[in-house]
Amino acid sequence: MNILQPQQEVVNMQCNVGKSDRMFRIVAGLAMILAGVFFHSWWGAVGLVPLVTAAMGWCPLYVVLGIKTCKAPD
Question: Does 12 map to a domain?
Fold first, then answer.
């Protein structure tokens, strides 16, 4: 073990967000951003979270909760 380089855990970012879940996240994220712009609120920035998780196909909260909405690989 090297003292200068601490041991790091590797996070496995496998798909855990399915197609319909992604579509919902995109619509919800865009709606939040548009509402934030319309009401001149910075809360619209929260809409970036579902957009990013939809784009990545991975949600860290789903990992913690053990949820997986994507199809199993064939």
Answer: no
Q: Can you tell me the distance from the alpha carbon of 56 to that of 44, in angstroms, rounded to the nearest whole number?
A: 20
Amino acid at 22: R
Average pLDDT, the chain: 88
DSSP 19-30: HHHHHHHHHHHH
Regarding pTM above 0.85, the answer is no
Q: Is residue 47 part of a domain?
A: yes
53-66 b/e with 16+ CB inside 10 Å = b?
bbeebbbeebeeee
> Can you give the pLDDT at residue 3?
59
> Sorting pLDDT into bands at 50, 70 and 90, what band is 63?
very high
Q: What is the biggest distance separating any 2 CA atoms in the chain, rounded to whole angstroms?
A: 55
